[in-house]
Automatic annotation (TrEMBL):
<dbReference type="InterPro" id="IPR006680">
    <property type="entry name" value="Amidohydro-rel"/>
</dbReference>
<dbReference type="InterPro" id="IPR051781">
    <property type="entry name" value="Metallo-dep_Hydrolase"/>
</dbReference>
<protein>
    <submittedName>
        <fullName>Amidohydrolase family protein</fullName>
    </submittedName>
</protein>
<feature type="domain" description="Amidohydrolase-related">
    <location>
        <begin position="53"/>
        <end position="401"/>
    </location>
</feature>
<dbReference type="InterPro" id="IPR032466">
    <property type="entry name" value="Metal_Hydrolase"/>
</dbReference>
<dbReference type="InterPro" id="IPR011059">
    <property type="entry name" value="Metal-dep_hydrolase_composite"/>
</dbReference>
<dbReference type="Pfam" id="PF01979">
    <property type="entry name" value="Amidohydro_1"/>
</dbReference>
<dbReference type="InterPro" id="IPR057744">
    <property type="entry name" value="OTAase-like"/>
</dbReference>
Length: 401
């Protein structure tokens, strides 16, 4: 299977420069770029007539199984029903230009295998299984009056409760056994959980280090949900590779990001969407009231991290019917960053985070042939990426999808 794009403006995300060239894909990879390329027999040829071509987008914080903003309700849904919703959610993500996503709890090897085999239309799926939470933590969705929870591995929830170093090790090993690309831990309170405070810290340092040790033993890494500087700093000291959200970081956090060579994955759009629409899509009132605490702080944290030189990846964390706002994150980040820096977060930055530099997020020869043909220049107008109507073609593994 071969595809040739003629007369394209190919973006080098590293330099921010466009080059006039053709691009040929073969066997799912970028085979060659240059002027006047030949087309082997059977090659599909598309003349893009000077359109901009950029790498396929990577969203490094999604929940593809989150058909409702009430995450606690997922564990009572039949897995078959959740899968039906997930297929729709993933297909829509691909149509918005996201050719790879990193799931931050909920997705499993079954969904990843189904996508890879072509049974589900959607982005390449990097999964962690279920996020690890302490009792009463961000992935413990029991109300105060609930004392029992079904932690059967086939249940469709986004988290599992593990208390103590040994239990954390066993839970991490179990997710790694099932093929997890990374381990997710809840290191602070959150908006969606019913019984914790946003400003709480979660897991002891020994428990956090245990998760990191197990991930590193398997050549994987840990992503940590954390909001406040206190929670973020503890996670970074424990060796976590990526901080998810980080809305309330301070200057000491920036220093620790740099010292530990870690990543920040802001998710501004989810708070914007939760404030506007969360209650319409199942977010409980108690959770909706928490949104203001992190909404305004998020843009300040992004600016602090960007000015401090923290490495970042693009993330959205949208839930329920709010998934449709996935590209709006480009517009929100562009309030404090250049369009090129935002695009780097969704391409080379995210690829580096997940350990796939040179494989994803680039138009270099040998990389996966994931790319977008755009109507307009995203470096001049971020709206070209923020509004999917400007995407002329989505190409995944060398096929127009």
């Amino acid at each position: 299977m071969s595809l040739l794009l003629r007369n394209a403006l190919l973006l080098d995300v590293g330099t921010g420069e466009y080059a006039e060239a053709d691009l040929r894909c073969a066997d799912g990879r970028i085979a060659e770029t240059g002027r006047g390329l030949g087309a082997p027999d059977g090659t599909r040829v598309i003349d893009v007539a000077g359109a901009r071509v950029v790498p396929g987008l990577i969203d490094a914080h999604v929940h593809v199984t989150a058909s409702s903003a009430d995450l606690g309700s997922l564990r009572s849904m039949p897995p078959s029903y959740v899968t039906a919703h997930t297929a729709r959610i993933m297909g829509d993500m691909l149509s918005r230009g996201f050719t790879t996503v990193r799931d931050a709890s909920g997705a499993d090897f079954g969904l990843a295998d189904a996508q890879a085999e072509g049974l589900i239309r959607g982005p390449r799926l990097l999964f962690c299984g279920k996020g690890l939470s302490q009792t009463g933590g961000h992935a413990d969705f029991r109300g105060r009056g609930e004392h029992l929870t079904d932690d059967h591995p086939c249940c469709a929830g986004v988290g599992r409760v593990a208390d103590g170093v040994d239990a954390v090790r066993a839970a991490a090993r179990d997710e790694l056994r099932k093929g997890a690309h990374h381990i997710k831990v809840m290191a602070s309170g959150g908006v969606a959980s019913p019984t914790d405070r946003i400003d709480s810290t979660q897991y002891s340092m020994d428990e956090l280090r245990a998760a990191v040790e197990e991930a590193e033993a398997a050549n994987r890494y840990v992503a940590a949900h954390a909001y406040t500087a206190r929670a973020v700093n503890r996670a970074l000291e424990a060796g976590v590779r990526s901080i998810e959200h980080g809305n309330l970081i301070d200057d000491s956090s920036v220093e620790l990001f740099l010292r530990h060579d870690a990543f920040l994955v802001p998710t501004l759009v989810t708070y914007w969407a939760l404030k506007e629409e969360g209650r319409d899509f199942g977010l409980p009132a108690s959770s909706w009231r928490k949104v203001d605490e992190v909404l305004e702080a998020g843009i300040v944290a992004l600016d602090r991290a960007a000015r401090g030189g923290v490495r970042m990846a693009y993330g959205t964390d949208l839930l329920g019917g709010m998934h449709r706002h996935q590209n709006q994150e480009f517009r929100l980040r562009a309030e404090v960053q250049s369009p090129l820096d935002v695009l780097r977060a969704a391409t080379t930055g995210a690829a580096e985070l997940v350990g796939l530099t040179g494989e994803l997020g680039t138009l270099a020869v040998g990389a996966h042939a994931d790319l977008l043909v755009l109507d307009g220049d995203p470096l001049e107008d971020i709206g070209v990426l923020a509004d999917p109507k400007h995407i002329r073609h989505v190409i995944q593994s060398g096929t127009v999808v």
